[in-house]
Amino acid sequence: MPLREESTRAVERVERPTLSVVVPIYNEEEVIEILHSRLLQVLSPSVAAFEIIFVNDGSSDRSAELLDAICLSDVRFRALHFSRNFGHQAAVTAGLHAVRGDCAVVIDADLQDPPELVLVMLEKWREGYEVVYAQRVARQGEGIFKRGAASLFYTLLGSVSEIDIPRDTGDFCLMDRRVVDLLNALPERNRFLRGLRAWLGFKQIAVPFERPPRFAGQTKYPLTRMIALATDAVFALSKAPLRIATYLGLATSLVSFILGVVFIIERLTRDSGIARGWASTIVIVLFLGGIQLICIGVIGEFIGRIYDEVKGRPLYIVARSTGLE
Q: How confident is the prediction along the chain (325 residues), in pLDDT tens digits per residue?
C-alpha cells in the first residue's frame, strides 16, 4: 500500500474516533512519557479508532515540549495549551469541548487513574450505560488526614446536595456523546464536573477500583485547592448555605428574645448592678455579630458567583494547539 494512501486512511480513522480521552496536564513532565506508553499499551490493541487530547493547563516545566513531541509523532494525540493556569475543571472542560468520539473518558495524568480501567468502562458503555464512573474502594499512598478530609467532604456534600452524588468518585469517568454534548451546553463558570455529571442523570454505573499511589511528582491538589473545590461543590449544587444562614438568624433571634425576657425578670426581681451584666452583654453582642458576619459571607459567596456569571468571561484561553484546528 502506498505510504500516502496509508497516511490518508489513518487520518480518516482519527476524524471519526470511537473513543476520545481527555487528559489535563499541569507540570507533569515526570509522568508524561510513561503515561503516553501506558495509554498506547492499553488502547492500541483494543480500540480501533481513538484520540487522546492533552490539555496543558499553563505548565511551567517541560510538559508543553513533551506533549508537542508526542502529538507531532502520532496523529492520534492532540494538545491544547492554555495561556496560563486556569484550573483543573477548566482544563477538563476544554478537553470535552474538543472531543469528537462517540464517547469520552476523562483521566488524570498522574496514573492514579489506571488507564487499564478504560477498557472496563468501554464494556459497560457497550452494554448501554451512558455514564460509567470509577469509584475508589481504597486509596493507596494517602495519609490519614487526606482520607479523613475526603470522607468528611463526601459526607457534607451528601447531606446538603439536592442531587445524589456517589461517594469516593472523581472526574475519572466515561461519558456517552450525548452526555458530553449536554455537559458542554451548560453555561455555568464555577464548574464541579462530577456534580454536573450526576445532575444530568441518564443510565449510570460505578466501576470499583483501588487507587494506586501517584507515579511521580507532587500532588496538584494541596489543602487550599481541596477547600476551594469543596466550596465550589457545595455552592454549585445546593442552596443549603442560604437556608443555614436563615436558620441561624431565626435561632439567634429566638435565643436573644429568651435572654431578653430573662434579664428583664432578673432586673425586676433582683438587685443587679449594671457592672454585673456587662460581660454577658459583650458576649451576646459578639455572638450576634459573628452570626451576622457568617450570613453576610454566605450571601457574598453567592453574589460573587453571580458576578462571575454576569461578566461572561471565557472559562479558559487557548494560546495554541498541536494537531487541533
A: 333 333 333 444 445 778 899 999 988 888 888 889 889 888 888 888 889 999 998 888 888 889 998 988 888 899 999 999 888 888 999 999 999 888 999 998 888 888 888 899 998 998 889 999 888 776 665 556 566 666 666 666 666 666 777 777 778 899 999 999 998 888 777 777 887 888 888 888 888 887 766 555 555 555 566 666 666 666 666 666 777 777 777 777 777 677 667 767 766 676 555 445 565 676 677 677 777 777 777 777 777 777 777 777 788 888 888 877 6
Q: Per CATH, the architecture of 3-238+314-322 is what?
A: Alpha-Beta Complex (3.90)
What Å distances lie between residue 12 and 3, 5, 8, CA to CA?
A: 14, 11, 6
Q: How far apart are CA 204 and CA 302, in angstroms?
A: 30
Q: And the C-alpha cell for 110?
A: 498522574
